[in-house]
Amino acid sequence: MKIIDNKGAPPELIRVAVHEAEVCNTVNTIIFDAFIKDLNGDKGAFAPETGTLIIDMGACILDTAWMKRGFMVIANAWFNLLMTVYHEMAHAAQLDEEPELMSLDVLPEHYEEEATRTAGLAVLNWADEHETVPTLNELGWVGDQLKILLNKLYTEMPEVVDEELDLEGTNMVAYAQEGAESSREYNSAEEIAVLLKQIDDGVIGKKVGEKRYLTAYEAIGIQLNP
Questions:
Q1: What is the Cα–Cα distance from 101 to 144, expressed in whole angstroms?
Q2: Are residue 180 and residue 159 in the same domain, yes or no?
Q3: Final residue belonging to a domain, choices 109, 129, 149
Q4: Which domain holds residue 37?
């Protein structure tokens, strides 16, 4: 297995990628880079002709998909990175199992959906096994870029940045209200109220002052549930 790290990828991300590649015969090289022109903004890609898996860490920072589900800035970047690794590995596994797919320029949509489901469950499993997400100092180049981003954000929303840094290194990574409202699991104000009361009662998540948070496992879980 060849690792090409052009920026300084988070060690935990490298560990996950190598571990996944070891059980997939089609992955020979993993490249970690940022703002890769040929990817046109995509967070990752797998080139079956060379067995190369590519992760664009810059695109993972810019994509705010997890933030729209209530996740905080650091967690958003981390789970974009993790989801991208698992998603592209899922495609590599598909091609390993069905080599005839390599002749296609674009995989049929159901293969994309399958890769997304597989990656989502893998990310959920990672969150179950790890109490906290990596801190800024554990995220390598990504952490450095997030520090720059948070410094800029501080001039406009200092309270948001203070909150982010106060919770860094804890297992609280997402806003409960926003997470529930964007989830597939909670479909009414009454159901969300039940969730918030569970946090107040100490059953799940955590309440800090008047704000309620979810752990990574809890926040990802409510997004994956149908």
A1: 39
A2: yes
A3: 129
A4: 2-129
